[in-house]
Design goal:
Blueprint: H1 4-13, E1 23-24, E2 30-31, E3 40-41, H2 44-56, H3 63-66, H4 72-81, E4 91-94, H5 97-115, E5 121-125, H6 130-143, E6 148-152, H7 155-162, E7 166-172, H8 184-193, E8 197-201, E9 220-223, E10 237-241, H9 243-246, H10 285-300, H11 303-325, E11 331-332, E12 344-348, H12 352-361, E13 364-365, E14 367-369, E15 373-377, H13 385-400
Parallel strand pairs: 2-13, 5-6, 5-7, 7-8, 8-9
Antiparallel strand pairs: 1-3, 4-10, 9-10, 11-12, 12-15, 14-15
Helix pairs in contact: 1-13, 2-10, 4-10, 5-6, 11-13
């Protein structure tokens, strides 16, 4: 039996426990939704004030040079790059994950069309975050060159589809719904053996699991910064390109920030050398700057230690649900094998939406995803073992007392 006292002991021995003080968290809230929107770093408030009052307010347009706003996308990309196994000058922070996927998909398809024009299949998971599929469909419709999307059921279905004329594969490193964690190096080897290219969506893995894009010989990667990296709602996304591909093609959103000599105001586009060619237009400096607050916290920690604690916390969550809530019909859909588990735990239940609303009313914030999935994000830098204990005790009480049957929990908001 796991006890409350045992959880308190684990918190006392936790090497990462002091990092919780770096975040502004409401009192008496157990926040299990950092895989959707990360908590606010405490120092972001002072930093935002500095940017707004000094860099913008006092220095005005001079800050493009004085504060190096112009260099921020690459400078910040180099910091994020340390968390994903990227070298200097390989990563840029820019735009949204959605736009960045369009950019790298365009590049990957162009590269493949030059080498293997007969390859017309773009692969994605059926259970991918929908925007990935939408962008692939929109891209195919836009270029109108006979490409088609092939949706697979997961890693077990990949071998089958790779026997066809696959140009590009788009996969989420950690599946947003189930928490399934792909073995990046193994998948890359399999895809490259069939002369296809891989784009990794890192939205649910960057800041949650260790990775090394270069060592794994990845091709392209994109991902958001507002989940585990705590960059703030809608903060700009990351984009990484393997140097062997970077200068083969420039992405089609050829705005002036990606120009080789932007201030020449030339009438024709010439792509910048290196990763800057993946920029488009003027960047959102204030929201982009705040990403640094969260990233700097990660750079003081160890991704390996974060991963170790993540696995202990997710193990604890799963074990406690088994121990305390086995009679209530929760079906675990997250892998129990550490090798294939990211940093969130998901269950299916016919009344998942109502249960999540009841948890939120009790101060335990998780989230819901169709169909019938309760999803709990485990963020080791600001969650402890007692937090997990308390969350499961609230879940148990909700089920014992049928609190989820409250009619108000049936009403769905615009964001669910």
């Amino acid at each position: 039996m796991i006890t409350h006292e045992q959880c308190l002991y684990w918190d006392k021995e936790d090497e990462l426990k002091h990092f919780k003080d770096e975040f502004a968290l409401p009192k008496d809230i157990v926040y299990l939704d950092g895989n959707s929107l990360g908590a606010r770093p405490k120092n972001s408030l002072n930093y935002a004030q500095h940017i707004i009052t000094q860099e913008w307010g006092e220095d005005l347009i001079n800050s493009w040079n004085k504060a190096d706003w112009w260099g921020l996308p690459v400078r910040l990309g180099d910091k994020v790059g340390q968390l994903i196994g990227a070298k200097q000058g390989e990563t840029v922070i820019s735009d949204s994950t959605t736009l960045n996927l369009f950019k790298v998909l365009s590049a990957a398809v162009k590269i493949q069309a030059n080498k293997y024009p007969e390859r017309k299949i773009i692969v994605a998971e059926k259970d991918a975050f929908p925007t990935d599929i939408y962008i692939i469909e929109g891209f195919i419709d836009l270029i109108n060159q006979g490409y088609q999307v092939e949706l697979i059921d997961g890693v077990s279905d990949l071998d089958r589809v790779l026997e066809s004329e696959v140009a590009v594969v788009v996969l989420s490193h950690v599946n947003y719904r189930t928490g399934y964690f792909y073995d990046m190096a193994e998948i890359n080897t399999k895809i490259h053996a069939k002369n296809a290219l891989i784009i990794w969506d890192l939205c649910h893995s960057v800041g949650a699991v260790p990775m090394d894009l270069n060592a794994a010989n990845s091709d392209f990667a994109i991902g958001c910064t507002y989940k585990y990296l705590n960059g703030g709602p809608g903060s700009p996304a990351l984009l990484w390109v393997n140097p062997k591909h970077r200068d083969e093609f420039w992405q089609p959103l050829s705005g002036w920030w990606g120009h080789r000599k932007p201030f020449d105001m030339a009438q024709h586009y010439e792509p910048a050398k290196g990763i800057r060619r993946y920029l488009c237009g003027t960047q959102p400096i204030i929201s982009m700057s705040l990403i640094e607050c969260g990233v700097d916290i990660f750079l003081k920690a160890s991704m390996q230690k974060i991963r170790e604690k993540s696995l202990k916390l997710t193990d604890l969550f799963i074990d406690l649900v088994n121990q305390e809530c086995s009679e209530f019909g929760f079906e675990l859909i997250t892998p129990t094998d550490h090798h294939y588990r990211g940093s969130h735990v998901s269950y299916q239940h016919p009344h998942g939406y109502e249960i999540i609303q009841a948890l939120i009313a009790r101060g335990v914030i998780g989230d819901y995803r169709e169909p019938e999935v309760l999803r709990f994000g485990i963020t080791p830098l600001y969650l402890g073992y007692e937090d997990i204990w308390n969350a499961v005790q609230h879940l148990k009480a909700i089920m014992q007392h049928n609190e989820w049957k409250n009619e108000s929990y049936l009403v769905r908001g615009a964001v669910t």
